[in-house]
Write a structure and sequence with these properties.
Elements lengths: L6 E4 L13 E8 L4 E7 L5 E8 L3 E3 L19
Antiparallel strand pairs: 1-2, 1-5, 2-3, 3-4
Amino acid sequence: MIKELDTIVLTTDLPEYGFERGNIGTVVLVHDNSKGYEVEFATLDGETMAVVSLFSSQVRPIGRREIAHVRPVESFHQQS
């Protein structure tokens, strides 16, 4: 079960934010018995890119023996 402050993996692309399947985020809020989550996505140097509401089908826990992949992000949707 995914809980607050867990690190998750995105299972779908979110082009409106510039996020791709496999990006990593942190759960900051769990909705309605894990039906959905508020997930913060940040750069590796700590800049928050967005906090996004996602359904449970759009995320998964990090699995055993997985490795992160790094890519630059030139621009992204900033929250106001």
